[in-house]
Structure to design on (291 residues):
């Protein structure tokens, strides 16, 4: 198995929204805001080469939205792109066999669909796209608070392409945030953790690699700065559930020496954990290639 960090760019979001009830006087030291209270965040995907498969986890924001849309997120003019990062490694979109979408918020799935000749089509023409029925239905019929994050142009073309498959879960897993096996046709070294605090049925891939477990954190822990329990995003649909999920996961990760891989941290790719007087905190920070 080989793992590759895929940088799909950077964007900005309101710091207060990203840190919830935590005061700016505290979080601004962790990710300093600009004059508009906006903090920079990464769009960091993960590529897994294993068992003859090339599996991409999340796809970043993509580039098919209009200038007004992107102006809200202050995308750098010269920025990393998903396709460019793949090309640096010698891969093309046609090489991807599977795309795992942790959830369908635009900054996680926007790059799954491209626009060519005014037509929307899969960015990875030979890939199977993976979601789950619980989250898919949640995204198709969103609540008013989350509606702006679920864009139909990112979601409906996946279904109409005929390339969408759903991960099946055992009874009770949706409520208990347990693990579910990825279909064997993807990989025998990946499983899914289900969380429901940020959005319904978000899937966190867990990868067995060199005898270690790497957890792709998606939006349960967007960054290293979100490890302390009260640091919960205002974007989360069920913040008290997120709090419980974080507490349970962090203890499990500590006990089992998991490696955490961060999708949105602008600087830090991976970390391990340690117990401190203030609770569970970061131990070592490192890049994926250093594992």
């Amino acid at each position: 198995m080989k793992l590759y960090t895929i940088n799909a760019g950077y964007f900005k979001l309101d710091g207060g929204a990203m840190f919830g009830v935590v005061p700016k006087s505290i979080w601004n030291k962790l990710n300093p805001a600009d004059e508009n209270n906006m903090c920079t965040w990464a769009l960091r995907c993960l590529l897994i080469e294993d068992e003859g498969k090339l599996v991409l986890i999340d796809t970043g924001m993509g580039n098919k939205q209009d200038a007004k849309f992107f102006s809200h997120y202050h995308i750098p003019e010269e920025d990393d792109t998903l396709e460019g990062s793949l090309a640096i490694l010698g891969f093309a979109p046609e090489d991807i066999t599977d795309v795992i979408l942790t959830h369908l918020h635009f900054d996680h799935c926007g790059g799954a669909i491209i626009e060519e000749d005014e037509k929307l089509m899969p960015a990875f023409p030979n890939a199977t796209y993976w979601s789950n029925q619980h989250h898919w239905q949640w995204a198709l019929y969103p609540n008013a608070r989350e509606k702006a994050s679920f864009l139909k142009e990112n979601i409906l073309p996946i279904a109409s392409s005929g390339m969408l498959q759903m991960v099946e879960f055992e009874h009770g897993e949706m409520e208990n945030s347990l693990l579910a096996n990825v279909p064997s046709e993807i990989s025998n070294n990946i499983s899914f953790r289900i969380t429901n605090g940020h959005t319904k049925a978000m899937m966190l891939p867990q990868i067995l690699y060199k005898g270690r477990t790497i957890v792709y954190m998606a939006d349960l822990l967007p960054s290293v700065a979100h490890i302390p329990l009260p640091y919960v995003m205002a974007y989360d649909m069920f913040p008290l559930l997120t709090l419980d999920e974080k507490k349970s996961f962090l203890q499990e990760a500590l006990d089992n020496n998991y490696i955490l891989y961060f999708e949105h941290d602008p600087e830090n790719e991976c970390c391990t954990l340690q117990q401190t007087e203030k609770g569970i905190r970061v131990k070592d920070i490192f890049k994926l290639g250093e594992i």
Notes: Residues 2-290 form a domain with the Metallo-beta-lactamase; Chain A fold (CATH 3.60.15.10). The chain has one domain: 2-290. The chain has a mean pLDDT of 93.
